[in-house]
Specification:
Structural class: alpha+beta
Number of helices: 7
Helix content: 40-55%
Radius of gyration: 15 Å
Bound molecules: FE2/S2 (inorganic) cluster
Oligomer: single chain
Largest sheet: 4 strands, mixed
């Protein structure tokens, strides 16, 4: 069962923009992967159901592409939007601060595996740029102070 959160709302909106067309599967898989950082069974099953496709087909397409991950990368996942609006509003500076503070590189995880950092394309919330997602929470108009503080709290919790 997928949790009803902001990521799911964004994914749903992206699918709607594609009119739930099966031909948009790869595009939708990319978007979902960027939002969640990896695929699990419930996410792929959800996409299959919404696009009215057999789950085995969705899984088959997803597993064909090596850049997709199927295991939760770290205990906590930060995903930073690198779309144009977020870039212009200084997301790069926030990413650099996360890398320095937590000893993690974009696309990778901390040595203890507790934190992973990803960059994504536009998540469709440009008015709130820059956007950083920490686990289930999308932080809009993010500043490095707020994000670092939030991540510290997640790591302590
Ligand atoms: S560019 Fe980041 S939400 Fe659109």
């Amino acid at each position: 069962m997928l949790k009803e959160d902001r990521r799911l709302q964004i994914l749903e909106r992206i699918m709607r923009e594609h009119n739930y067309q099966r031909s948009a599967l790869l595009e939708i898989l990319h978007a979902a992967h960027e939002l969640y950082g990896y695929f699990d069974k419930s996410l792929l099953a959800y996409i299959a159901e919404r696009l009215n496709l057999p789950p085995s087909h969705v899984y088959g397409v997803a597993s064909f592409y090596h850049l997709f991950k199927f295991r939760k990368p770290g205990e906590h996942i930060i995903s930073a939007c690198m779309g144009t609006a977020c870039y212009v509003k200084g997301v790069e500076e926030i990413i650099a601060a996360i890398e320095r503070e937590f000893d993690v590189k974009r696309g990778g995880s901390t040595p203890d595996g507790r934190l992973s950092l990803f960059v994504t394309r536009c998540i469709g919330a440009c008015a709130m740029a820059p956007n950083i997602t920490v686990d289930d929470e999308v932080i809009g108009r993010a500043t490095k102070e707020v994000v670092l503080e939030r991540v510290r709290r997640f790591l302590e919790g």
